[in-house]
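User: Thanks for the earlier help. One more: Riboflavin biosynthesis protein RibD. Can you show the sequence and predicted structure together?

Assistant: Of course, both are below.
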Amino acid sequence: MALDRAASCCAAPLAAAAAHFSRAERAAMDRALGAAARGVRGANPLVGAAVLAPDGRVAVGRHAGAGTAHAEVVALAAARARGFDLSAATLLVTLEPCAHTGRTGPCAQAILDAGIRRVVCAAPDPTALAGGGAQRLRAAGAEVRTGLRAQEARALNARWFAARAAGRPFVTAKIAQSLDGRVAAADGTSRWITGPESRAAGHAIRARADAIAVGTGTALADNPRLSARTPDGAPAAHQPVPVLIGHRAPAPDSHLADSARLLRYPSRDLAAVLADLDSRGIGHLLVEGGPRLISAFLRAGLVDELAVFTAPVLLGAGTPALADLGIATLSGAQRWTPDPTGERLGAPERLGADTLVRLQPSPPDPPRHNHSTAPHHGED
Ligand SMILES: NC(=O)C1=CN([C@@H]2O[C@H](COP(=O)(O)OP(=O)(O)OC[C@H]3O[C@@H](n4cnc5c(N)ncnc54)[C@H](OP(=O)(O)O)[C@@H]3O)[C@@H](O)[C@H]2O)C=CC1
Ligand SMILES: Nc1c(N[C@@H]2O[C@H](COP(=O)(O)O)[C@@H](O)[C@H]2O)[nH]c(=O)[nH]c1=O
């Protein structure tokens, strides 16, 4: 329903507004997209904004993660700090400004309050909660054009949009493996395969996730705390909700059994688990393992981001990082591609002796056409 509403609100202006973007507006939107790409994935989409002054100067901002100021607000503050005349400026944003009050206020109102009269947004916001910003701006008399770099903006958040449309959290799966793809040695020992820098990066993901899930196999083997901690062991400011999935009960007196916040799902129905987490306001779920639970998520196409930490450690035997994915032949392989976002724009990260690769599902192959008659959805 939400998608229909947003699509109908923005589809017509998209077509009507085609080809009415100046070179300076295109360049400013590219800078907004570049800023968005350097954000962090999670409960919120990646969003960037740029304020284009009449003299051609550009002030850029991006959303730095859940709970922080939205991109428009950051860009407006940067423009104010540089003395831009906002009443004569154009705001370009990669996603339709929100119209709701969440952890921060509605951006559509912040834009109006700043005196901005002209807005260009790349992609509509398909979420029921946040959508409607373009309408609100127009109703207040602002000029709103949409569709500039729409494809790029949609591609940037394709998995996030898909998760929202399905009514489930954005799912990150984390694997900490040896060079030969094992997550535990033959005797079950697994602490630690990866080094301290990797583990600190893993805790940074925990600290921005709303919830962190393991299967009962991991709970029983590892007695994990599932807390987010700084490198010196202190608790991080934000703690994810621990989640346990599977029929078996955690051991009495284990960390998870003792946790008052534990959400326990004696189930293997991952879609139902995710729907319930969504209903509890969990926007970003980190699945830490183990292999059977992550593999079930992968088989169901429910992983939006894979964070794979690989240590230069050989085990030769032990627990493989993944269980059966139901793939019988190479043509059925799941293909993943580096996520070209974040501070390193998709480059692998060296963490001490380890390597971190962040991946997203490869988009399906485009349908083959005999003639190039596919309609062009670009802005010009
Ligand atoms: N290095 C690393 O990154 C990590 C390593 N590990 C290691 O992995 C090992 C444990 O792995 P593993 O045994 O695979 O444990 P898992 O944590 O994957 O738990 C498996 C259990 O998950 C439950 N489950 C819930 N939903 C599903 C589903 N849809 N499909 C299948 N199972 C589901 C089942 O529980 P039930 O039978 O109760 O219904 C199943 O037995 C340990 O040695 C641990 O140290 C674990 C995490 C991370
Ligand atoms: N072995 C292994 C990891 N294992 C993960 O960490 C969990 C323990 O969490 P906690 O009790 O909160 O410290 C464990 O159950 C498993 O999910 N993580 C890594 O970054 N590197 C590693 O080598």
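User: Great, one quick takeaway?

Assistant: Confidence is low (pLDDT under 50) at residues 1-19, 372-380.
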